[in-house]
Amino acid sequence: MTSLDKPTDQRGQGAGGDAEARSATEAALFEAFGGVRGMVETTVPGLVFVAIYTVKRDIHIAAIAALGLSVALGIARLVGKDTLKHAFSGVFGVAFGAVFAMMSGDAKNFYLPGMLYSLGLAVAYIVTSLFGYPLLGLILGPVFKENLSWRTRNPGRKAAYTKASWAWGLILLAKSAILFPLYWWGDATQLGWVKVALGIPPMLLSVYLTWIFLAKAPPPIDVFAEMEAAEAAEREKAAADKAADKAADVAKVAEPLLAEWADRAVDEAGATADRAAPPRH
Q: Which residue ranges does the record annotate as region Disordered (predicted)?
């Protein structure tokens, strides 16, 4: 089992290992970010809102339509036995935006919660990278079954997570730099259409860069497999110790019996010899 304090060199895996690592990376990214479907589901409610508001100029109708669509998409996820995270992550964001817009009477506020979330996420990506705990590693570590082993035992993956987190942070900051001026000085339709346009492309770019960085990094250390192997080794050792103790107990019981049997055998042999010896005259 690899030491918890020493980096693990996992280079030289060969073409098969590289292909397997790339496939695992793709699957983990799709799991973590909901795949293309998740990207579409986070964009379509906003598209519905801005389209209806552009035509009707009615915040309530546009907000209720967007929220209803988001709930329908979440229910479809549940019917398809998808995870609750993917089913309702978009619903809450749309619900906050819809309620905020209707309460304030300003259609631009439909997008404000999502914009604040993106800005906060950008800051989190950058700050955690500066402190050596890149957020993407914290998110994807459990997905790859490596937990935090990448911090101390796999420096190549730590570097990859850091680069990817910086990419996410800078891309989201650039997105915020475009949207917030529109929120302050533009109108609701301008903000809405630009936000819809900036929904999927930045996400795709971020996921693509993450895939590039992680695909080139050393494969993850499966700490769960290591723990299972350690537990199996401990069970084998315990079974071996139990068998040795049992053998020692048997030996303790058998030793005096064997000694007694040997003494009897010697006595019987002596008696037989005495009977067989010719009488003395």
A: 1-20
Residue 270 pLDDT level (bands cut at 50, 70, 90): low
Other residues' Cβ atoms within 10 Å of the Cβ of residue 141: 21
CA 194 to chain centre: 32
Long-range interactions of 252-258: CB distance < 8 A, separation 24+:
none
Burial class (CB in 10 A: 0-12, 13-18, 19+), 124: middle
Distance CA 120, CA 118 (A): 5
Residues 226/2, Cβ–Cβ less than 8 Å: yes
pTM of the model: 0.75
Provide CB contacts within 8 A for 86, sequence distance 6+. Answer: 34, 38, 77
Specify the higher pLDDT residue, 201 or 237.
Answer: 201
What contacts 80, CB < 8 A, 6 or more positions away?
A: none
How many other β-carbons are positioned within 10 Å of the β-carbon of residue 164? 27
* CA within 13 Å, CB half, 72: 8
CA 42 to chain centroid, in Å, comes to: 21
